[in-house]
Fold this protein.
Amino acid sequence: MNRIVKKRVLAPNVNEYVIDAPLVVKNARPGQFVILRVDEEGERIPFTICDMDKAAGTVTLLVQEVGYSTAKLAKLVVGDGVADFVGPLGKPTDLSAHKNIVLVGGGIGTAVIYPQAKALFEAGRPAAVILGARNRELLMYTDEFKRAAKSLYIATDDGSAGQKGFVTDLLKELLEADRQRAKNGIDCVMAVGPMPMMRAVANLTKEYGVHTVVSMNPIMVDGTGMCGGCRLSVGGKTVYACVDGPEFDAHEVDWADAIARLSLYKETEQAHRCRLTDETAGGQK
């Protein structure tokens, strides 16, 4: 059983878990993910590897409490174990062909771009980083990014930290500045966060002709491509996020299809959460 070594709250309803998983971390690389089950009756849920310590044999996950399974996970404390912890899964990130990279993280998407920022910094090619959240309370890993990023930009919806507005506002400023210089410009953007945010980034960078990568974490069940739950349409072809991704060319993703599929199970998930927490559908106990 894989046990929780450390646990801390990073933002409202967002916990960081450091989990003992020496066999997983042995071959793990940035961009990959794990699938865990909280207990033997639980569902399989995917989480991107946010950080790893190969010497200690631990994997770090950032988990937002949004549904039945993440609420069950949130009840666990240091020393508790999870029933299953499988990985590393998915293809690792390859940004080796790019020199001037911007990493864009929205909300819990921070969990995905943080290991990328660390890897690029260690490779001597630090990236510019843009973080976005609704307010200051929901920003995560800002100190860590300051140490690993070439430059850090922050946008919040309410203006409580950084610039008031959206990550796309900051990204457009960087792209416009590059267009004026006309050389050594941004050659890759990696964006991770809510699907509407990633779609907005994709639409913006397409105007500037900048290659863009997104990490897609739709509904996953088995992590092997057999169930078909994570299928996406990319470049007019059906692909599976768990084995073909989770990262894809943002300009080839069928965003309308992806967003529609993600909303299919919202009512069912809310019903399960209500039974777990004794809440009504309106959020009252």
Remarks:
- The chain has a mean pLDDT of 87.
- The chain has two domains: 2-89, 101-215.
- The longest strand covers residues 2-11.
